[in-house]
Amino acid sequence: MSLPSDFFGRILFILQKYGVSFLNGAGKTMAIALVGTLIGCIIGFAVGIVQTIPVDKKDNPVKRGVLGLIKLILNIYVEVFRGTPMMVQAMFIYYGSSVLFGFNMSQTFAAYFIISINTGAYMAETVRGGILSIDPGQTEGAKAIGMNHIQTMVNVIMPQALRNIMPQIGNNLIINIKDSSVLSVIGVVELFYATKGVAGAYYTYFEAFTITMVIYFILTFTCSRILRHWEKKMDGPDSYDLATTDTLAYTSGLVKFPDPNEKEDK
């Protein structure tokens, strides 16, 4: 079958012949982005919580020294991965693991690992900022009732901070869907890599990447709509009544005041 001469004819020809390749590439891209974002969020939450552990001069010197060293290492991790391109990180980690440690990573493992630790560095700063955005009185109140730092984070601060950083989590997912294309430099067969193979078969680069651009847009737009809906669910209803079993605190409907305009029944 010969390649059609018109633009839309070539688009349909490519889709009929290589549609499965596009779908497989899109599926791999979404898997890498979703798993990488999830693991990256876990890393970011852990690093962000550790970075906000308060240090007092009255604390044990050993505790201050160990905590200071851990914070220094985590700060170096965050600054390095936020300050270098993901493409360079991919090349360094994938090839460097073999040269430095004799460990040959599979391309799939390297893809998940690189996206995860890169996302974790960005999420660490997001989580730290989200924690610091909460009123300090919340922390003071939790400590006043005997909570330690971890209990305060898990039960008081993080549930409030999570709502504030939800947009950034969604933004990281969108970024990972697009930036997963840089993993093609280490041979990961995601959407961009698959498109290069399709385009090279008939030298239809413009048509092939037009299809890919549309696929990327569909993936990112769909994810952004789902995340926006999730954010609205977390906001709760616009109007609500305070639910409590204390009848002294919740008097709606329990007391009826006389209306002066109403005539008394005789």
Automatic annotation (TrEMBL):
Chain segments annotated as transmembrane: 30-50, 62-80, 92-115, 182-203, 209-227
Entry's Gene Ontology molecular function annotations: transmembrane transporter activity
Membrane topology: Multi-pass membrane protein
Matching Pfam families: BPD_transp_1
One GO biological process term: amino acid transport
Source organism superkingdom: Bacteria
Keywords: Amino-acid transport, Cell membrane, Membrane, Transmembrane, Transmembrane helix, Transport
Compartments, as annotated in UniProt: Cell membrane
Recorded family membership: Belongs to the binding-protein-dependent transport system permease family. HisMQ subfamily.
NCBIfam families from the UniProt entry: HEQRo_perm_3TM
Name of the molecule in the record: Putative lysine transport system permease protein
